[in-house]
Design brief:
Blueprint: H1 9-18, H2 21-30, E1 63-68, E2 71-75, E3 80-86, E4 89-93, H3 102-114, E5 120-124, H4 130-133, E6 144-148, H5 149-158, E7 168-170, E8 173-178, E9 181-186, E10 198-201, E11 206-208, H6 221-224, H7 229-233, H8 235-240, E12 246-248, H9 258-281, H10 285-291, H11 295-318, H12 325-342
Parallel strand pairs: 4-5, 5-6, 6-7, 11-12
Antiparallel strand pairs: 1-2, 2-3, 3-4, 8-9, 9-10, 10-11
Helix pairs in contact: 9-11, 9-12, 10-11, 11-12
The structure holds zinc ion (ZN).
Zinc ion binds near residues 132 and 211.
């Protein structure tokens, strides 16, 4: 989509679907419903850099394109899935419900163009989250589902008919061979979730890893809601150790490059540096002097001041570089601040 074009209704709906969980969360957190929002009074943010936007979606609300050779990706500009066509059928990687029935439409389109089978025979789960695999049941029972062993445990306990448990699981490594193609799945520890898997396509120069690095965008709220912050911070080093040229991050409208990942890693490192500097600079005394026995009020205001000190220069540096730097950098800084205090013990003092 060109920066000046008006998104069509379908792409608008796709984006709305992608964020529909947010109002529910806000309602839970805020208690009573606030007055209805008016577009006129909502805050303004910096424009999205054109480099962060991907190809326009078609009339049905999706774009499907080649990553390399017979590996393809499909996006609704908020979510991404991938598929590999083979002589024996199609291997699908994730099934975001926001793309939904457009997954098979995209596969049909590409398979017809290339004269290859369009039947999905295998479905690989990147991780157990519903927003990435909630379209799984659309592919019926006659599909081999593959996921990390903790994905199976989590899905079994979540018991969601939209997300059948994987038939094939692995602990640390699995090689999938279908129709002469090879895909390497690996688990390198907890990061975004306990089951998040690296999906490497050695014959296609591509790595797929979902919900960590979203090319040309800052992470979603609170550092992508990553369950293990240190584990997530360590991901780029692990990912860069693989040979790849193309990156599929699971979100937004474009693929990533190694240079994009280096920018993302620098962004996270800048937040970490800012947090450490802020913890050594912002004096907590006035906050506790003001709020007395209301320890939460003092903590909330002090930590907000630390976040503002740490995130301010980062927002300034990345505006125009990473999309939505002014939207989510502060909440990601808070998540990283809490991890630096609690997981790493930085700034922790023992009472004399
Ligand atoms: Zn997720």
């Amino acid at each position: 989509m060109s920066p000046n074009s008006v998104p069509n209704r379908r792409s608008f709906l796709a984006r709305s679907a992608a964020i529909m969980a947010v109002p529910a969360v806000a309602t839970l957190a805020g208690g009573a419903l606030a007055a209805p929002a008016s577009a006129d009074t909502l805050p303004d943010y910096a424009p999205i850099p054109p480099s962060a936007l991907g190809p326009a979606v078609n009339a049905q609300g999706y774009f499907a394109g080649r990553v390399e050779k017979n590996l393809y990706w499909v996006t609704d500009s908020a979510y991404q899935a991938a598929f590999l066509t083979t002589r024996d059928g199609v291997v699908l990687f994730d099934a975001p419900p926001s793309i939904g029935h457009n997954l098979q439409r995209a596969i049909d389109q590409i398979a017809a163009e290339n004269g290859v089978p369009n039947k999905v025979t295998h479905l690989v789960y990147s991780h157990h989250h519903a927003d990435h695999i909630g379209g799984s049941s659309l592919f019926g029972a006659d599909v081999v589902r593959i996921g990390q062993v903790q994905a199976k445990q989590l899905l079994a306990s979540e018991n969601d008919p939209a997300r059948p448990v994987p038939d094939v699981t692995f602990e640390t490594k699995y090689t999938l061979n279908v129709g002469g193609e090879r895909v390497n799945l690996a688990w390198h520890g907890t990061n975004h979730t306990p089951d998040n898997s690296y999906i490497h396509f050695p014959g296609h120069d591509t790595l797929m890893l979902v919900d960590i690095f979203l090319p040309r965008w800052v992470p979603f709220d609170s550092f992508n809601l990553n369950e293990d912050v240190p584990g997530s911070i360590a991901v780029p080093d692990t990912a860069m150790a693989y040979p790849w040229k193309h990156f599929i991050g699971g979100h937004m409208g474009r693929l990533g490059t190694r240079a994009d990942m280096a920018v993302y890693q620098q962004y996270v490192n800048d937040i970490i540096d800012g947090v450490k500097k802020a913890l050594g600079t912002v004096d907590p005394t006035p906050f506790f002097a003001k709020y007395g026995n209301n320890v939460w009020a003092a903590s909330q205001q002090y930590l907000a001041a630390v976040v503002a000190y740490a995130s301010g220069p980062v927002i300034k540096k990345y505006l125009g570089v990473l999309a939505a730097a002014d939207v989510y950098t502060a909440s990601t800084t808070f998540a990283i601040l809490e991890s630096i205090r609690l997981d790493l013990g930085f700034g922790s003092q023992v009472h004399p």
